[in-house]
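Q: I'm writing up a methods section and want to include an example of the input and output format. Could you take the sequence below and give the corresponding predicted structure tokens, formatted cleanly so I can copy it straight into the document?
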Amino acid sequence: MALNAQSLSAKETRSLETLFRGVRHTLLNRGLYGRQDGAIQEVPWKRAILLDELGIVAFEVDVSRSPVKIERLLNPEVAHQIQASLGGRQVKITNSQGLLFGVSLEPAQTLATNLPRRVVLDLENRPPGRYMIPIGQGRRGAVWRSLLDTGHILVGGESGSGKSTWLHAMLIALLSAYKADELWLALIDPKQVEFQVYQDTPHLLAPLVTEADGASALTARLLDELDRRRALFARAGARNLVNYRHLTGEPLPLVLLVVDEVTDIALEAGLKSSFYENLIRLVSKGRAFGLVVVLATQNPKAEVLNTLIRGNMSTRIAFRVAANHHSRTILGMSGAEKLPRSVRGRLVVRLDRDLENLQGFDIIDSQIRALV
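A: Here is the clean output for your methods example:
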């Protein structure tokens, strides 16, 4: 491949060649090539563009001869897989002035360094915005996001990693800010221990669910609510919850479904059960009508969290997991299995297509007791 840069040392040239091999091998491993007469047709490359001032090298594809559709190369999962194969270097794929794979020249810094080992949730300093939830503490401060922007959330982590504390921090932040006519909760807790403290809150759309039959009934009720909202939105000409409120002035609540240990209850109910089918419909259709689904699990199985579910989970949060295939199920790439077991609450989050290491917020029991 031709490189449009001069005066490169042999070491610099070898470094760029190594980066290119990482990109090329990832595409081959993902099956992003064609076959003709028994021969492999690889993605054809035009040139490498060294942008030293930006700290990146861009590898350009000859799209006129590509054996696969451009959409397949632009899939965000491709960038995440390349990033993993290159040791965490930042990777961006763009298609504005030609199809380019941009790779950072500098290795990614270990974001786990310079993070605190414990941060107590501070509700007094929550940022402005509707339905804001705490994600974690980064090197540049606290990270919060609106449920209106996160979409559905997938949370995974082994026992003791901090997953349950993260769920409580989210619920406390919401319940302390919104009344029952602004927020409806639907909670599924097969362990029967995590969400019992919320069973008397007026925000509950239905009593706390702890078994498969109840989960089927609850998700069916939520689908009925989606049908009701679909009719309301159609009459108002609304595109989403915020737009509906703006057009009608009616205070339609946001609905939050939280399923703890989703793998366990899905396997108990069965992958052909009404609960599982309802869940797939909710994550596929719910966001547009003001319903957000949060799925949490200690045991992220790919057959349960299949592409129909994972493809609709816009935000992915991984605490430490037992194996790299668990990390790939949650994040689309390995890495969460390497988080330090000695630091409870350390997490990797995928927001806005980028991965970031954060320290999850800790909560004090008196915060929960005072709230409920």
